[in-house]
């Protein structure tokens, strides 16, 4: 189910260089390359421009892509891959050569603003941990020699799993096994005005919590006050996992007596597809998480511990990476497919700043995944009867007949009613079996009312109809046994059309 347009990201200022500084947060995007049909560099840059993406992070320093990014103004973070750490961390000359080849050769035309030295080294490549700080210092020396140290910041992204006892955040501390690495690294970040880079994945926190963490808490959905998590030591209230993890990192730094280093989230996102054990890796949840994350970051709300302090964040990731190993979810974190089609349309209306093309407030009404089939059938009968929805596209041989089941047919009917009622409150309920989504349910040649998709069709219903699914008037009596429509539906439609 593709949509032609997708709103993604807009230009904002860089993260402030001290914890007390003022400034606006930005949203960036990671660009991975484990893709069987990897887009060319010019294609990638064209997509970035079309979507107003102004901050990107690369997992290497790909020369072709850096050249394509020249003169675009896009702020670029390049990376030293983990497999190059050993040589750079053991040789000042090797580090200088890396900087000359991958940074100095491209600036100022390419706007390189940061260097990631390795990625999650402490947790994925612990044998290289002792040389991270050396690698950072050697690279910094090369930047100083080139007079680029003020323009380009250096850090190393960490997995949030290096933080122990992370809730309540006030009792969090870094795994003390890594203190010989973390202390000198934090000293470097403090002395150079850089930031602690942290990868924050509420999806994994939720998955591994065995039901302790509610899904709404992971997805930034509003919680009633009595459901908010409260730090008993500080009495700070936490409404989402993201803020709790970031504050845990702040408190972990405080535990080592560092209180003025800002945090940048170098990876965060939600997968849009998973295997049988990943039931919450869905398009709707990915859309909800990333849309709410973007809104949260760009509102500059900060965290409960540091309200108003920017936490700039890079979304993981630009493209689905089909070559990644592991569970299905590993291949489905992207905002786009490799051909440039969006996986889903981010719903950002009301976020203060509207990204790219998201000006439509495009929403749809669909069946809930756990809806009772009998309730669905009753609601479908009502929508195609008293609700006066045009259900003719659901007839056999018509575009929306397939898939031939009550879930698919009721989704079409519910959405048609919702659009006809101009998305008015209460028009997507149907006694609790329907819900609003930002993901276009159109498929194949079946274009749903309200879609701005492949055929650009849209229903502008203005006629009045009952506001909810209370039964009245003509009751259609067709039954969707396995989704099969009998000819009685035609009679029902004809009869109800004259009511």
UniProtKB/TrEMBL annotation:
Topology term for the membrane: Lipid-anchor; GPI-anchor
Keyword annotations of the record: Cell membrane, Disulfide bond, Glycoprotein, Glycosidase, GPI-anchor, Hydrolase, Lipoprotein, Membrane, Plant defense, Signal
Zinc-finger in keyword set: no
X8 domain boundaries: 363-448
GO cellular component: plasma membrane; plasmodesma; side of membrane
Polar residues biased stretches: 458-470
EC number: 3.2.1.39
Region spans: Disordered: 448-470
Taxonomy, superkingdom: Eukaryota
Catalytic activity: Hydrolysis of (1->3)-beta-D-glucosidic linkages in (1->3)-beta-D-glucans
One BP term from GO: defense response
Record keyword Kinase present: no
Signal peptide: 1-21
Chief localisation class: membrane
Gene Ontology molecular function: glucan endo-1,3-beta-D-glucosidase activity
Compartments where found: Cell membrane
Pfam families per record: Glyco_hydro_17, X8
Family: Belongs to the glycosyl hydrolase 17 family.
PANTHER family: GLUCAN ENDO-1,3-BETA-GLUCOSIDASE BG1-RELATED-RELATED
Protein name: glucan endo-1,3-beta-D-glucosidase
């Amino acid at each position: 189910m593709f949509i032609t347009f997708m709103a993604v990201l807009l230009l904002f200022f860089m993260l402030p260089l001290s914890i007390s500084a003022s400034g606006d947060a930005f949203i960036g995007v990671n660009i991975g390359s484990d893709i069987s049909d990897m887009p060319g560099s010019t294609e990638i840059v064209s997509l970035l421009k079309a979507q107003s993406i102004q901050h990107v992070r690369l997992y290497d320093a790909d020369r072709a892509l850096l050249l394509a990014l020249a003169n675009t103004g896009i702020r670029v973070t390049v990376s030293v891959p983990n497999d190059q750490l050993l040589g750079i961390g053991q040789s000042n000359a090797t580090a200088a050569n890396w900087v000359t080849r991958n940074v100095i050769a491209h600036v100022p035309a390419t706007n390189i603003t940061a260097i990631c030295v390795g990625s999650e080294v402490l947790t994925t490549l612990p044998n290289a941990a002792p040389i991270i700080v050396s690698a950072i210092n050697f690279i910094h020396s090369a930047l100083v020699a080139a007079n680029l140290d003020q323009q380009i910041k250096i850090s190393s992204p960490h997995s949030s799993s290096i933080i122990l006892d992370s809730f309540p955040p006030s009792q969090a501390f870094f795994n003390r096994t890594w203190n010989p690495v973390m202390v000198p690294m934090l000293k470097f970040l403090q002395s150079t005005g850089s930031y602690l880079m942290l990868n924050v994945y509420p999806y994994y926190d939720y998955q591994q919590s065995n039901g302790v963490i509610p899904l709404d808490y992971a997805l930034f959905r509003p919680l009633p006050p009595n459901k908010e998590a409260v730090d008993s030591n500080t009495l700070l209230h936490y409404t989402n996992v993201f803020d709790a993890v970031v504050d845990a990192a702040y408190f972990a730094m405080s535990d080592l007596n560092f209180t003025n280093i800002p945090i940048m989230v170098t990876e965060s996102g939600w997968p849009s597809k998973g295997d049988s054990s990943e039931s919450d890796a869905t398009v709707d949840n990915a859309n909800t998480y990333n849309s709410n994350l973007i809104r949260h970051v760009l509102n500059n709300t900060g965290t409960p511990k540091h309200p108003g302090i920017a936490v700039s964040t890079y979304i993981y990731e630009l493209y689905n990476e089909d070559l990644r190993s592991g569970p299905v979810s590993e291949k489905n974190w992207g905002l786009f497919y490799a051909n440039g089609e969006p996986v889903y349309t981010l719903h950002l209306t009301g976020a203060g700043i509207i990204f790219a093309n998201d000006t439509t407030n495009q929403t749809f009404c669909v069946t809930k995944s756990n809806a009772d089939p009998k309730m669905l059938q009753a609601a479908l009968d009502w929508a195609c009867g008293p609700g006066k929805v045009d259900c003719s596209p659901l007839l056999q041989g018509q575009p929306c007949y397939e898939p031939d089941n009550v879930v698919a047919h009721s989704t079409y009917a519910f959405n048609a009613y919702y659009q006809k009622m101009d998305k008015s409150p209460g028009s997507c309920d149907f006694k609790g079996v329907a819900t609003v989504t930002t993901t276009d349910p159109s498929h194949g040649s079946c274009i749903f009312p309200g879609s701005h998709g492949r055929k650009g069709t849209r229903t502008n219903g203005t006629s009045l109809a009952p506001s909810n699914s209370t039964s009245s008037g003509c009751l259609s009596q067709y039954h969707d046994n396995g989704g099969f429509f009998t000819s009685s539906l035609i009679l029902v439609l004809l009869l109800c059309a004259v009511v």
